[in-house]
Prior knowledge:
Blueprint lengths: L3 H11 L4 H8 L3 H8 L7 H11 L3 H5 L11 H10 L3 H21 L4
Helix pairs in contact: 2-3
Amino acid sequence: MQTIGKRLAEIRKSRNYKQTELAEMLNVSQQVISNIERGVTAPDIEQLKCFADIYKISLDQLVGREFFCDDEDDVERKIISYIKQMDNEGKELSLGLLCQVAQHRGNNDGNE
């Protein structure tokens, strides 16, 4: 299981932020970011909220938590959860596939 520090470092790097840039946005020293990412210290909930706000993701996504209901009627929630975890390229590909499926179904008028 990935530690929160490693997860935060991974997300920071994927967003092309340097530790110094992130530290400035959070109004902390670069050493604080380094210590969190190396697992020397753990971020508190307020810091986690700030990380999530900067990265524009939920706290669940920030900590790598996937939550799915067992309810079969909750397919939309599952789809949205998967999409939120994708990068922009994945989202564009998914949108293209959905448009093709919708177009295909429209052309068949339900006569499959």
